[in-house]
Amino acid sequence: MTRPEFIASDVHLGAVPRATEHDFLRFLEHVGGHGRSLLLVGDLFDFWFEYGDVIPGKHFRVLAALARLVEAGIPVTLLGGNHDAWGGRFLREEVGVAFHTGMLRTELGGRPALVAHGDGLGRGDFRYRVLKSVLRSRAAIAGFRALHPELGVRLARLVSTTETRGESEEVVRGRARFIEEWARRQLRDDPSLGWVVCGHAHVPAVVEEGAGRFYLNAGDWVQHQSFITVAAGIPELHAWSGTRGGHSRT
């Protein structure tokens, strides 16, 4: 039996309870025992920044678990999200994940896939897209790196709304609809694509756009603890329920 490919997104480690981190570690063990690959579609960390050889220490358990997957021959692809786009050498060379920022064209289930975290898509939200380009500029990264790491982490936690869940249900649903519409448009405009995979919405979704072509969003681990598997070209949405894996939600 072919091992499935696993997809997860928006774990927000550092802003979720320790119990959620433990559940995610068990999920990674499950991937190691049953999976063929793992795709993490952004915001694995609520904040990630590499100060040369200095990294946030509280994530060492998950980093070690990801390294074990890679060493066991299970490729891990990590997309930077709006909370953790500042990855680099440590993730690539020490942990061994394939770290990417921006959109990624890859394969999923043997078919072409377009992967994007989901922030700043399309032509909308011009102010956010400008802010995004500034925060990810070389000058901004150099300035932030000049801060003491503990101060940098404190600043990041001050501006994050993950712990307080500071958005209304209406805002969350509106963002999810926008991302889904964007993804379905990519599938309509590019017949070569079999999949468009996004995160950021925090709302799980498996949506078919034409025969056997899908928009996928694995949801999050802040509320849903959800993930997607793809086996033999068939996507299934699951909710994590313990050491034996998840239950289909579709």
Outline the structure in words.
By secondary structure, the chain is an alpha/beta fold. It has one domain: Purple Acid Phosphatase, chain A, domain 2 (4-Layer Sandwich). Helices cover 34% and strands 22% of the residues. It contains seven helices and twelve strands. A seven-stranded mixed sheet has the order 4-3-2-1-10-11-12. A five-stranded mixed sheet has the order 5-6-7-9-8, covered by helices on one side. β5 and β6 form a beta hairpin. α1 packs parallel to α2. The two termini are 22 Å apart. The mean pLDDT is 85.
Condensed summary:
By secondary structure, this protein is an alpha/beta fold. It has helices spanning 18-34, 60-71, 89-95, 126-135, 138-145, 149-159, 169-189, and strands at residues 5-8, 37-40, 76-79, 98-100, 104-108, 111-116, 195-198, 205-208, 214-217, 226-231, 234-240, 246-248. It has seven helices and twelve strands.
